Amino acid sequence: MFFTTYYSNANTGGAPDATVRIVNDGNTDGNLYADIYVLDDSQELQECCGCLVSKDGLLSESVDSNLTANSLTGKVNTRGVIKIFSDANWQGWDAGSAVSSKAGLRVSATHVQSLGEGYALTETNGNDANLGSVEKALLPEECGFIVGTEGEGGLGSGRGTCSCTPEDSDF
Predict the structure, then answer these.
(1) What does the pLDDT read at residue 95?
(2) Starting at the edge strand that comes first in sequence, how are the strands of the sheet with 45-53 ordered?
């Protein structure tokens, strides 16, 4: 499964923080991984991470603190796209290893809407998306270049890696 959602007004003074929630629906024989890719509004990959989601588990990720706080370029990102793969096996960010997608994760997200004076939060389910073979291979490869593969540092030198809140914990 492959989901997309967006973030807006992130890291904006006076705006509330948005949340991405990922649930393992328990319909599999075990754990799944949420492979998370955060792109800026220029479609450039800025952060990526893989988070374990145990059977019937819940992840609650802060857009400001977990998903956009460590961008590859150091730029403060305020809007963009978040892509999440439901993955059967965590393979690390090994350049050239494609996602082994497996159904079972469900995604929802809150979105910060500007009202001119103040902000409002809306919440939607992640959009099911078509996963083409190019993107299935390209995003993990790009992430591997950013964060590095085993034993090697990536281009980000510590930047470009999002973080995972401990399962079943709110931030």
Answers:
(1) 46
(2) 45-53, 32-40, 80-87, 2-7, 127-128
